[in-house]
Amino acid sequence: MFHSFLHWRQKITFSAYQGYRLFCLLQNNPSVLSLRFLSTTSNPDSFTVSYLINKCGLSPESALSVSKVVNFETPDKPDSVVAVFKSHGLSEPQITSLIRKRPQVLLSDVNHTLLPKIEFFKSREVSSRDLAKMLANNPNILARSLEKHIIPFFDCLGNLLKSDEAAIKAITTYPRIMTYDLNNYIFPNIEVLRNFGVPESNIVKILNSMCGMFLKSPVEFKDTVEKVKEMGLNPTMMTFAVAVFILNFMTKSMWDRKFDVYKNCGLVGLRKRL
Q1: 271 and 232 Cβ atoms separated by less than 8 Å
Q2: What are phi and psi of 70, to 5 degrees?
Q3: Is the CB of residue 103 less than 8 Å from the CB of residue 66?
Q4: Which of these, 23, 35, 142, 155, is most buried using a 10 Å CB contact count?
Q5: Of 171, 177, 188, 238, residue with least CA distance to 212
């Protein structure tokens, strides 16, 4: 009788210990619970999810989400893509960020589509560091055609900015610009500035340091420039361009409130001087 009671007590103590260990494991490694969730709720063929977690550094939740966009049964193609990124200077966190933003890149044809684009940027003296930063921040660049978009865009931007070095600085500072159509956004908006009397030298400076302001529809951009002109700012001064840049990211009422601060500080004649 006493022996049975002792055996029963030992079983309870052992079960409690196991429960405590499981609690500590889940508390310190919440991903374990996510992995358990994946194994019971995802597609039976979980190779893609497993690969994204173990080879690409995605969280279980991100991997499950990405697996709805891309799917592969062998590691051959994604391995070759990841190897290309590593060989061109991308860190593991950068590769993880790139794949999370554009998972389709894992299905790229390395020799025919991926490498030629990377080699083009390298041929234009884009450093490994700048290339890694650019691709990690905006991997959608890799979705654009090399011949129809990337090369013509880079050449046109270089001509506008008077050098390839300036073009590199612009696209690495604001990578999104390279996914936009020059003819639908940048060229029409440059023409708007010219029509309002902004000097060519100032337009070049704007492209160099504030190129993001051109990524609005020409109709919206013209409306913004008109508002700045109505404020009495001089289009030949850089302050005009700065005002256009700022107003692009705030409502008219917000701008008016900020301008009132200057007037309340005694800078009533600010508009005339600027």
Answers
A1: yes
A2: -125, 150
A3: yes
A4: 142
A5: 177
User: 181, 106, 92: which is closest to 142 by C-alpha?
Assistant: 106
The pLDDT tens digits of the residues spanning 193-220 come to 999 999 998 998 888 888 888 888 999 9
Measured from the Cβ of residue 85, the count of other Cβ atoms closer than 10 Å reads: 23
The tens digit of pLDDT for each residue in 22-80 reads 444 434 544 444 444 444 444 534 899 999 999 999 999 999 998 888 988 899 999 99
Give per-residue burial for 167-178: e unless 16+ CB within 10 Å, then b.
bbbbbbbbbebb
Quote the pTM value: 0.71
User: What residues contact residue 82 under an 8 Å CB cut-off, 6+ apart?
Assistant: 55, 56, 95, 106
Biggest CA pair distance of the chain:
102
d(CA 102, CA 143): 9
Task: Please tell me the chain's helix, strand, coil percentages from 3-state DSSP, rounded to the nearest 5.
Answer: 75, 0, 25
